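lol so apparently i was supposed to do this last week
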Amino acid sequence: MTFHIHIKGIVQGVGFRPFVYKLALKHGLNGDVNNTTDGVHINVECDEEKANEFLNEIIKNAPALSVITGYTIEKIRDVHYDDFQIIHSESEKEPNLLLTPDFALCEDCRKELHDPENRRCRYPFITCTNCGPRYSIITGLPYDRPLTTMQKYKMCDTCEKEYNNPLDRRYFSQTNSCEECGVKLSIYENGSIIHPDDYIKYIVSAWKEGKIVAIKGIGGFLLTCDATDEKVIQLLRERKYRPSKPFALMYPDIEMIKEDCDISDKEETELKSVVAPIVLLKLKDEIKTGLDITGITNGLDRIGVMLPYAPLYDLLLKEFQKPVIATSGNVSNSTIIYSNEKALKELDKIADVILLNDRDIVIPQDDSVVKYSEKYHKKIIIRRSRGIAPSFIKKELELSEETVMCMGASLKSAFAILNKKNIYISQYLGDTGTYDAQLNYTNTQRHFFNLLDLKPDRIVIDKHPDYFSSVYGMELAEKYNIPVKKVQHHKAHFAAVLAENDLLDCEEKVLGVVFDGTGYGDDGNIWGGEFFIFNKGEIERYSHLDYFDFILADKMVKEPRISALAISKGILKDNKLIKAKFNKIEWGIYDKILKEGSKLKSSSMGRLVDAVSSIVLGIDKQTYEGEAAMKLEVLAADYLNNKSIELHDSYIDAEQIDNILESIIKGIINDLDSSVNKNYIAAKFHISIIRYIKNIANM
Ligand SMILES: [Zn+2]
Ligand SMILES: [Zn+2]
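anyway here it is w/ zinc ion bound
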């Protein structure tokens, strides 16, 4: 008898075929295994009991990096096999599979990288079936070398032997290469190519000399420099037009991270995982490595830290033995640069030295950012990108057969696609207010449509008519002649949380609390302090933060003092503290605008936090998004770490659900007038918000 097994999920580029091959040998089975555009297909010639046993062992012992989302087994027409073979991929069918993300350097490869006896010792692009780039280098499906940017490197005899040896870790490893046949480095300094004897040592010397080095990695270029060198960090800030936003760091190893940061088991596991994201860690009181903390964080109490996830970084950091700044290679807030040409043209204004390699990146990705909550150690993904994108797996979700393209929002843009019951969520694509990010968005969208050979049945856009993603979504809908659904921004946030927590089928009503900066509301106002009720598939607005005048558009978002002014209007009469934040001319103009009143109202929690930060901390203009809120949080956390606080330490009364703004602003001004400790005020403000949520929930 012959049986056919079909396995779906993340099963390509993770060593699945070699695994099945070895298992078949162990079971003494004949047949074949094949990668196609809809998953892994296996044929085995044996009786039913053996076939089921074989399938069970595949499911139970599947390769560590794979994720199986579904499988079938069926008896087919008898075929006779003389042995068990891996068949090369075929690609006639429409793609129906999840995409494999990029994987961080595995421990086996790391050992070989530093082993003088190994032929790949110090080869900066060492990989195997368990590690290396995937999503960032695919040009088509299924995942096979000719459809990746490894296609141009012809394997040398030794590599080829490994590739064809079923017992080798690099059996069918599509990224297989070595110093002789693989990826080549090149260095540019002052616009011209140089040829040092040792590329790694050269870059490390550059760091030691206080130079800024741009390095092409997995998802794009990183700008790097010595993280203990105050002068070069300031220089990087000036050249990058980034006055104070914190920089991420890369450390040589976990031991050195522990010298500077408090780290939980979960955080350590996350850092060492195949994703190897930036993890936001609490700084210790005493910094042992000599980091220039002020230059790096500008007053925040956490730093973003990662480990060398690519062999090139591992070689460099092991040699340097100090942490380096490792920030996305871009100018100001545009998107990450990933091509050699663009790097040479644009990054040479920032970097003194540029380290290139000749392996092309198809899809740029920033490093992912993850944080664990303080008390319950819950994982919070802040930026979903390298290592996590582009697949999303949630087996519990009941998905429609439709192909749906969801366009996302604007500031932290990303899109989601439902196709053949697979969900894809793109990497973070940047702020589509910039032209760069718009290009990045459309390129990535086209790449997905091509890869998956898909035509959408429906487009979903944000209700905001002017978002790039909304306008572009309307264009796509016209092009494909398909319907568009407009979804209110915060209702979309709530729906995502419902899905993540398996609540879409919930029989009971669910209260959703969505606090945000800006989102276009159903009534045309700017929402952002929202309470919703989810009931039998419908989301309705239940309550919201009191409306205040929304004025001066983007200027209000960038300058917390304007939120302080607009929110305190009518609450405080000509308050000295607020007035002192403006010069005479500004005051004249803004006061007039507010006296006339704005037609546009806002319920944004983000703006309330800005206002409080401006009033308590004097942060009147912010140089990066979230600065005012994060600095207020630092104060509150500092207080809560040292002292306990009760729910009645609040500016809001028990059961109060109205006039929230008035109670908070008046209460804070009173406390300031009585010289109450600012850390306590910050903590009390946060407690007030918690009480507000509790009051609404009890309504
Ligand atoms: Zn490896
Ligand atoms: Zn080779």
